[in-house]
Design a protein that fits this description.
The complex is a heterodimer of chains A (150) and B (300). Chain A is of the alpha+beta class and 150 residues long. The longest helix of chain A is centred in the last third of the chain and has 14 residues. With 300 residues, chain B is α/β, with parallel strands linked by helices. Chain B has a five-stranded mixed beta sheet, with helices on one face. A two-stranded antiparallel ribbon of chain B has the order 1-2. The radius of gyration of chain B is 21 Å and the shape is globular. Helix content of chain B is 26%, strand content 16%. Chain B has five helices and nine strands; from the N terminus they run αβββαββββββααα. In chain B, α1 runs antiparallel to α5 and α2 packs across α3. The longest helix of chain B is centred in the C-terminal third of the chain and has 26 residues. The chains are: A alpha+beta (150), B alpha/beta (300). At the A-B interface, β1 and β7 of A face β6 and α3 of B.
Chain lengths: 150, 300
């Protein structure tokens, strides 16, 4: 129970922004909602922004370092987030997941065919950034995700 | 006059020196954060979607949404939110442009004049990936200057039951006032005080965020100070050099006030000179003080 609490706290604390206005979501819920949970790294120069019915989305390609839930043979994924810049127009949704080039993190994803890519579950809460020194956190998260994902 | 001048200088210094927690939404660039987002007009239009929501009986939701805008404008009303010791006010005003039956959110870049700043309830069809999101504000802007061109607010009434005056589920005002803060270019506050309207999280039954806290009032007065150009960045702890004022296409900082009056409505834009102005004011005050002190020593 304590370990679970620590994880929930770590997950929530690691999320940079909790959404435009959201209910906090715990790790078990994130795992349950996601079709794919993976340790990913956003590839450089892989982003492209596009319009869909008045909204701007940005698609980025991420290298899958490890899959913790979902198809394990996936090597790369397209992750689509709200917001971006197309020409002289920018768009922003506060609380959306921030996927900078080169960023590494644990992504909780759900596939959206119409966008030809995965969306991050629960906005920023669905992407937990991992730094170079976060090996222990990554391991602990993996154990919990695999446990909740059974 | 001398005493009043020094007191004013001291007051200005105190205001400049206050460590605020509010944050401005910023243009995100590949290398750093760009200019903060802001409306270039103090007279801001909004449109309500005519369908409202099935959650709330009658048309009460529309009155709540209108009042949510006024909560931010009330900082400019005499006797309004001045309890935080504000030395300045905002001159924001909001104008409802009627009801709309168009439920399209976002910006029509081909027909920008047709874009509405829409507030809409989604009683069905909310994205399942975001089912814990209570509401979303989508802000469209010019990435060079940070000018907000359009802002839309969507309420997730698919998942959440919004209420008015009954703190049972999601109080509509508690959510709407927060979303209007994003609409105006504010990001989530860094303050640990969850009373702040711009605090990121909310819980069912909460109503306190329907009223602005000091952090929120200070934010809006900083961003849209009455009679002055927009304030930029997260003040006042950042120096002017870190403020990334809007730049033109050549990369030249645009630090002069742009008056874009065209139809009689004054429009303000671009960087505030506030950090520099305070420095100049302090320098003048110190110079006068030293001169007076020298004169006193001569004649004592």
């Amino acid at each position: 129970m304590i370990r679970y609490s620590v994880f929930v706290g770590l997950v929530l604390a690691a999320s940079p922004v909790m959404g435009t206005r959201v209910l906090g979501i715990g790790l078990p819920d994130l795992v349950k909602r996601a079709e794919l949970v993976a340790d990913v790294e956003v590839l450089k120069d892989s982003s492209s922004s596009f319009w869909v019915d008045g909204r701007i989305f940005t698609r980025r390609t991420a290298l899958v370092r490890a899959t913790w839930k979902g198809f394990s043979s996936v090597k790369t994924v397209n992750i689509v987030t709200r917001g971006g810049v197309v020409g002289r127009i920018g768009q922003r949704v506060d609380g959306e997941a921030v996927l900078d080039e080169g960023a590494r993190g644990v992504a909780f994803l759900i596939y959206v065919p119409s966008l030809d890519g995965y969306r991050v579950v629960a906005l920023a809460q669905g992407f937990v950034p991992l730094g170079d020194g976060d090996t222990a956190l990554a391991h602990e998260l993996e154990v919990s995700v695999r446990s909740y994902g059974r | 006059m001398g005493v009043r001048f020094w007191l004013a200088s001291l007051a200005s210094l105190l205001i400049a020196g206050r460590a605020e927690a509010f944050l401005c939404a910023r243009v995100s660039t590949s290398s750093d954060l760009g200019p903060s987002l802001a409306w270039f007009s103090r007279d801001i239009a909004f449109t309500l979607h005519a369908a409202g929501t099935r959650d709330i009986e009658g048309d009460a939701e529309f009155d709540v949404l209108r009042a949510s805008f006024e909560a931010w404008a009330s900082v400019s009303v005499p006797g309004g939110t001045t309890a935080c010791g504000l030395a300045a006010l905002t001159d924001l005003s909001f104008r409802e442009t009627g009801m709309s039956n168009i439920d399209r959110v976002g910006y029509d870049f081909l027909h920008p004049e047709a874009s509405e700043n829409l507030l809409i309830f989604r009683d069905s069809g909310w994205d399942v990936a975001e089912s814990n999101v209570i509401a979303l504000t989508t802000t469209t802007y010019d990435p060079v200057h940070g000018e907000i061109l359009d802002a839309d607010i969507e309420f997730n009434s698919t998942v959440f039951d919004f209420t008015v005056g009954i703190p049972v589920s999601m109080d509509l005002a508690n959510t709407a006032v927060h979303e209007v803060g994003h609409f105006l270019g504010l990001a989530h506050t860094q303050s640990e005080n969850d009373d702040a309207t711009m605090f990121a999280r909310a819980v069912p039954g909460e109503t306190k965020k329907a009223s602005l806290a000091c952090d929120d009032a200070l934010a809006i007065v900083f961003k849209y100070p009455a009679g002055e150009a927009n304030g930029y960045c997260s003040p006042p702890t950042q120096t002017c050099g870190n403020c990334a004022p809007p730049r033109d296409e050549n990369g030249t900082p645009a630090v002069t006030v742009i008056d874009k009056s065209d139809d009689g409505r004054l429009q303000y834009g671009c960087a505030s000179m506030r950090p520099v102005a305070y420095g100049i004011l302090l320098a003048i005050a110190l110079r006068r003080f030293l001169r007076t002190a020298r004169l006193r020593r001569l004649f004592s």
